[in-house]
Amino acid sequence: MGTGLARKAGEGRKSWHAASRPGQLWSFGSFPAPAHMALSAEQWHFGLRESEPEGGERHFMKIGDPKPLGSVSAVSAREREKARAAASSGGAAGGRTVSDSASVMGIPEAEITPRVRDALMQLMGEVADLRREVSAMRERLRESEELADRDPLIPVLNRRAFVRELSRTIAYARRYNEPAGLVYFDLDNFKQVNDAHGHAAGDAALHHLAKLVLDNVRESDIVGRLGGDELGVILARADEATARAKAASLAALVSGKPASFEGKDIPLTISVGAISFTGDDQPDEALARADRAMYEAKRGGPA
Fold first, then answer.
1. How many domains does the chain divide into?
2. In the annotation, is 195 catalytic?
3. Where are the alpha helices (DSSP H) in 63-198?
4. CA 191 to CA 300: how far, in whole Å?
5. Residues 126, 163: one domain?
6. Residues 276, 167: one domain?
7. Which end of the chain has fewer CB atoms within 10 angstroms, the N or the C?
8. Does residue 238 belong to any structural domain of this protein?
9. Which of 229, 265, 280, 284 is labelled catalytic?
10. Tens-of-pLDDT digits for all 303 residues of the chain?
């Protein structure tokens, strides 16, 4: 019977494992080995190999196979003699005692004193705290990224984020040869609103305008604040006729729904410019064309 034993050398403790054939190991508690496992010295063969640095050395003994284990080297003659003596005494006594030991994180069971256990618990608590801190940091980073893209006054993108999204839309149009629309508008006589009702009323008017626009565009459309009272809308997959139609509908919507501030209605109108662009445009060029269209509409009167 080709039965193998493996001994793991820890820090002052030894454990034995038996295998019926190479590659299979079982751990046993203390028990007397069967008589048929008592073998002569000639049937013992030895090998030595090193495991990972934290695991220490592992000494392997293979029984009943004249070939050494793979990737092993001969052990010292002293260890060989000790094993032969153990085999002889085991054969004379009709058996031998095999014991095993447990370890936690590479620490033998005998060394897990209360102080070591407390240290391990403290370490585990610190790891849990670090995980919570990393999770909170990721959440703060996500919030910071959103704040970096959002206008500080109204719930739309700021100019930087809007230009970035415009660049992406232009790249999409270039790749798939599809046009897109850009609507550029501002509030008429916004300074008069601030002078007559105060800056708080002007802020309320901008909030009102943003809400009207956001409620009347598609989810795929992108709204951003480009200046003090100037807003823009990117219309995905829209030609110039579609962009102009959307601009006219937004102008009619704003003029038909005045803003409300402290119980007073504040009538609003907007001037709108609309263009379409393709992948041949640059973001700054597209914005400049839409801005010119808006000022042309403003010179001709409110849309």
1. 3
2. no
3. 77-93, 114-149, 159-176, 190-197
4. 19
5. no
6. yes
7. N
8. yes
9. 229
10. 444 444 444 444 444 444 444 443 443 343 444 444 444 444 433 333 333 444 444 444 444 444 444 444 444 556 666 666 665 665 545 555 555 556 666 777 777 888 888 888 899 899 999 999 999 999 999 888 888 899 999 999 999 999 999 999 999 999 999 999 999 999 999 999 999 999 999 999 999 999 999 999 999 999 999 999 999 999 999 999 999 999 999 999 999 999 999 999 999 999 999 999 988 889 999 999 999 999 998 887 544
